[in-house]
Fold this protein.
Amino acid sequence: MSLSINQMFIGQIARSKRVFTEVDVKLCSELTLDYSPIYQENYFGDKYQKPIIPGLLTEGLIHQTISKKLPGGPCILLQKELVFYYPLHIGDEVMAELEVIDINESRNWVTLKVTCYNQLGTEVVKGQVVILILSEQSS
């Protein structure tokens, strides 16, 4: 499903869920060369009881929701502002919820409010993204 900017509306919502595994964390570390010990099973630091997942994985779920659901087609990320309130741990379920809060048809820009929740319903990430819609149907 690929939406044109004319098919999008204020208040439109899309959601995606995922549980990140130890393998996901290892692949992310290999790709980014970020081998922080906070992601390791044998090091939790003083603040956390178990390893956290890299924020980049949660951002990936946000991008997945954009590319598959809202708008679900070709677009370019122009701006991203995210605040990570609480860490996510390996095995936590995270849900990314994106809501259309502004549409600029003259520029083909859409602003999405981003909220991510853990399996307990706690907001763990909040912010917004601005995307440029590239679909052929957009004006």
User: Anything to note?
Assistant: The chain has two helices and five strands. The beta strands are 13-19, 75-84, 93-104, 109-118, 123-133. The CA atoms of residues 34 and 90 lie 16 Å apart.
